[in-house]
Amino acid sequence: MSKVIISCAITGAVHTPTMSPHLPITPDQIAAQAIEAAEAGASVLHLHARDPDNGMPTPDPNVFMQFLPRIKQSTNAIVNITTGGGQGMSIDERLAAPLRASPELCSLNMGSMNFGMYPMLGKYKSFQHPWEAEHLEASRDWIFRNTFKDIEAILERLGKGHGTKFEFECYDTAHLYTLAHFLDRKLVTPPLFVQSIFGILGGTGADSENLLHAKRIADKLFGNEYRWSVMAAGKHQMPFITMGAINGANVRVGLEDSLFAGKGRLATSNAEQVRLIRSIFEPLSLEIATPAEARELLALKGGDNVAF
């Protein structure tokens, strides 16, 4: 087994300010929590942006550029910018920040899917901002869109255009076959960074059988041409990614995926989750990859070749 790459998804576009006082909203908060997560051992920082006034997800590259340079100046971590954005964003909006920043790595969802966040409505009696309940309810009738044409455009504009590589987000095994299709067409280049995602309503459930099945399919399709990573939503986060790492996976933590650091206990920061997973891995003799080691494992272009 190679060393484990820890990715940390700092804020995302799912959780809302009401859900945790520790969710980073402003550029200052996002930068500070990302830097702290890197210091705790995360070698990849997965980043979204939010409107600093109300916490609503935003694709505005000007907001991204308020925290990206600070993170780069303060850490050696790999910056991974979303191309998934958030609910209601067009593909041009979703690509605006990464095209401006030209990062080493971007997330890329490998298909369209239902993406249900509305069950969280029942957990809160009221919300700080009107948009929060509207955002959650709207997901009842929302399809996240990434068609074959959309994926081709992202691969062309970012991959070919900027030398950016991708964290291929696969919410079910069908997405693995879609990725294999693009590999057959030579539109993606190994080593592929495959993120298997579990526990999102509309995607694969967080069952151990599904984790092992995803690995079997990925092994069948990609052989030794991929690096596997696992993430799971909510209460499944820590146990599921631990099981993934024992089976050879890299892992992703962060407040985008779960707001907790134990049953009923909100995580006070992204770094707390990084430290928690390290405290599990190190007694199991699972070594943590440094950013330099992660860059080599993923064959990235290097932090000096970005535009922020």
TrEMBL record:
Q: Transferase: is it a keyword of this entry?
A: yes
Q: Keyword Transferase on this protein? A: yes
| Pfam families per UniProt | BKACE
Q: Which cofactor does it need?
A: Zn(2+)
MF term (GO), any: metal ion binding
UniProt keyword terms in alphabetical order:
Metal-binding, Transferase, Zinc
Q: Can you name this protein?
A: 3-keto-5-aminohexanoate cleavage enzyme
Q: List the source organism.
A: Sphingobium chlorophenolicum L-1
Source taxonomy: Bacteria, Pseudomonadati, Pseudomonadota, Alphaproteobacteria, Sphingomonadales
